[in-house]
């Protein structure tokens, strides 16, 4: 009887070592898999960044210039942008000579909805362009600590 009890206890101890060993192996394999997935995610993120950088470079080589849109932080505009605008969407720039704050103001529209203004420091660079034939589109919508929207424009 003592002999059978000893064999059962010894068998249980061996079984625990086998289970513990495989759990340890499983944890090691899981850690390796997690590292691989993290590395793959990083690579995918880098590829997306490189594609965006390449697109921006191509646009600049085609004569486009990049500018930031002012006033997108205003909640009504921000909500509209987040719900309706996408990178690559066409925008329209319209001078506002009767603007009470700045007679040189240039408003920016997306599908006839006012989404912001050309920044005051950029007006001199763009005032001739908006009175001519041009093409402009939303380049980037960045949601983070600061909500920013940039656009590209090219005079034809």
UniProtKB/TrEMBL annotation:
The chain crosses the membrane at residues 6-23. GO terms for molecular function: hydrolase activity, acting on acid anhydrides, in phosphorus-containing anhydrides; nucleic acid binding; zinc ion binding. It comes from the Bacteria. The keyword Membrane applies. Residues 63-120 form the HIRAN domain. The keyword Plastid does not apply. Keywords: Hydrolase, Membrane, Metal-binding, Transmembrane, Transmembrane helix. This is HIRAN domain-containing protein.
